[in-house]
Amino acid sequence: MTKTDLPLRMTRSLSPPEPSRPSPLVLRPRGTGPRAVVLLPLLLALAACSSVPLPPWPSPTGTVTAPPRVVVAPAPAPIPGVVVQPVPDRPAMGPSPASAAPYSAAVAARFPVPSVIYNTPGLQEGRGSFTSNAEIQTWLRELSTVASRSPGLKAAVLPIGQSQRGETLEALVLTRAAGTDAAAIAASARPTVLLIGQQHGDEPAGTEALLVVARELTQGLLRPVLDRVNVIIVPRANPDGSMDNKRVTTGGLDMNRDHLLLNTPEAQALARLARDYHPTVVVDAHEYTVVGRFLQKFGTVQKYDALLQYATTANIPEFLTKASEEWYRRPLVAALKRQGLSTEWYYTTSTDLADKTISMGGTQPDTGRNVSGLKNAVSLLIETRGVGIGRLHIQRRVHTHVTAISSVLTSTAQRASELGQLQPYVEKEMSALACKEEAVVEAGPTLTQQELVMLDPVTGADKALKVQWNSALTLRKIKTRVRPCGYWLSAGSRTAVERLRLHGVQVLRVAEPASMLGDLYRETASSAGVRQDVRGSIADAAQIVKVDVALVRGVIDAPSGSYYVPMNQPLANLVIAALEPDTQSSFFANRLLDSLSSTARVMSEPTLRTEELP
Known about the structure:
This protein has helices at 34-44, 105-108, 133-148, 182-187, 205-219, 239-244, 265-277, 292-298, 318-338, 368-374, 394-414, 416-431, 494-503, 572-579, and strands at 154-162, 168-175, 192-197, 230-234, 281-289, 306-310, 343-345, 347-349, 358-360, 378-387, 438-455, 462-482, 486-489, 508-510, 514-530, 532-533, 536-537, 543-558, 563-566, 599-602, 610-612. It has three domains: 26-51 and 76-430, Zn peptidases (Aminopeptidase, 3-Layer(aba) Sandwich); 442-477, no CATH class; 484-612, no CATH class. The chain is α+β, with helices and mostly antiparallel strands and 614 residues long. It is built from 14 helices and 21 strands. Strand 8 (347-349) and strand 9 (358-360) form a beta hairpin.
């Protein structure tokens, strides 16, 4: 499909229009407990169009079809809940009682306990620690057993890898497909939602919320979602960090900055899972710093229950950005508002106390949010206010995540038909761009000004600040190049090849010597440095090679055993992020490729005899 075949004229700006404020929906169901009060409105939303629709997607025949109206059967009666077995407490994690709060009682009063009280192992009254890794495993297995008793419902607990200390990483798969394996999920023709919690070990609310969501999907009010959606849940992606109450993995690396390079076994496990199950929607559940440098820099405390952002890196397809905004973020904001929960775009600030700039989530292609977008999935970041306050407001934080994730699930069920067209359409469009058009090699945020509301740490009153704001919604192009037809990699580039294939990128081995027209990279300047994000230096990032290059047109001699990465494939934009050498996230900068001569841009369709890798 060519650009002129698109159903509407697209603009190049990634800045979506701000939605009008939706009218609050007040539901007062009779005869329901507090858990039903929060989840029932989300289920009822399945049968209504509550978001601003995108234009209809082209059908395979080229005709335009109207979005179908989704009708969902009422929820079945809940099955008795999973039995929670108390375990001895680990040491308390940070301040627990209100008296230990890092701000006044007036601030704490701004965040009352929600009407619904959640029960997981880590949320039991009097508990000093959050749910342990062993308890998560027990929880998932019991839910899988319960789910398997329901006619037509399939469930399985998948081992997806191991942490650096040897802790098993597991995912719960829930589906009405013929089986829980990747082939059966793909054959179901239903969108798959991947839910990931606690990539950062000191951000526990996402894990506790995902345990609640798993229970509601298997035996509660969210179970009708599975009539239209497959769900995969990874409650805790960084078990070692959780045990230590630290942001980073055992090796000291921030795994949420490792989703392109895949240096950690934890990030590799998530990449394999995404490669095999090909999720349509990915949700990354985090928590953000409440006091810390915000109090030091601005004399304020963070206000919002949830900070939200979708993929904002170079080369994200525009239809994917529109779907993320119109089908997901807007209904999500409305769902949180109905529960009395406040929201804002995700933002943070650097660790440099002299730097008063506020930045949205980064534009580098290294976080889970951005890499999932480069894999053509709707990718959503949900952050609750939790880092640095221990168990304070934990029920409200979990309630925020449960409400937000339930909204994502119901939006996916509501849009199942359109999503079934969106991803193949985007993948076809990306594949068709090989050898032509311009690609952004490097992009950055746009500096603007914004009024941001925080809280006075003593009075608890709103405190409006005019701040310098790095917006990730409108990307500033720093470096662009014509898309190549493919990339050639030397026979010695085995590590880079392995990482690309772990992402799901097609890599072919050259079977007979050949010559290709291409652009070689010539170094014009080089220095050492470290990777940076909007907070500052990335945790335990090794030194990188910062290089400037010029492109030199020439003939590439491709011997047998070298590799060819075609660009007429769905993950072409991820390939650009990995193989263009002069960015901080690239494989060359991070020494997964040992020299500039290890790769070249192939600029015309080559005549090659190649073979698939085993």
